[in-house]
Amino acid sequence: MQASNFSFSVRGFLAALAVAATVAAVPAQAEIVSATIEEVDAENRTLRLRVDDGDSEARMVSARVGPGDVLIAREGAQVRGELVTLGGRLHLQNIWPDDSRAIGTMRNLARQLRRDTLQRGRRAFRGIGEPWPRFALFDQQGELFLSEGTRGDYVIVNFIFTRCTVPNMCPAATRRMAETQKLARERGIENFRLVSITLDPDYDTPGILAAYGDSRGIDSANFHFLTGPEQVIADLTEQMGILSRDHPEEIIQHTMSTTLVDPVGRIFYRVPGSNWSAEAFIRQIERHRENERES
User: Fold this and answer.
1) Which of 65, 141, 143, 256 could pair with 69 as two cysteines, CB 3.0-4.6 Å apart?
2) 38-84 residue pLDDT tens
3) Phi, psi for 82 (deg, rounded to 5)
4) Do the Cβ atoms of 72 and 142 come closer than 8 Å?
């Protein structure tokens, strides 16, 4: 009889655990809000926000944010995100800049990029000697990045995503980009930028990218991690020769390619796949500079 009671109590305990786990797995309902950051408490990863409720009077709330979001939070900045209660506390997650001028610029260039991709059709892929696409995305600081703003600089471009765990793919590519950044400085190349565009914009917000770079000791002075509208990313991957698809185990399965753009915006070197070296790209820049001086 005692064994039976013990067996019953264990089953009841496990059943209760199962119910609790099911409840915990159900996401809390999120409220989409537009807000102004009034105060940043970096130590406690908390933002004091003035939430605009449209016709109603604005309300003040305090919300916890992710480690990357607090790194780039600035008083007076306009943001949009999901306000949700977790563990009895308000959290603001999936945070994006909400600057109307920046968003307007991004939308305008996105429309042009979409038309360009459609017009190019089967020849959408941009080869050596062609200019790289005109586009606008947000970087890991939440600032608007314009491809045209790189004129005068050499730019190395690749595509990655922060949740990638395949060692010889995105993690290796980011390490090589950081190595190239260091080598360029050692060789005295100042007009130089690195650009990594996410393949996972639904997850990779500016704050997520900021945390990704910070955890790897990336110097963000001339290293831009970019994110933004899914269609812009799709058009860029098509024009830059990247194939990607959803995958149940790897999240996103994709090809890799690393491209070098010259100071007038033309593609002049590309290495497909993930096997490339910092030295090879720096040598290409040095040769290109030498040729430009001689011409």
Assistant:
1) 65
2) 999 999 999 999 998 877 788 999 999 999 999 999 999 999 999 99
3) -105, 115
4) yes
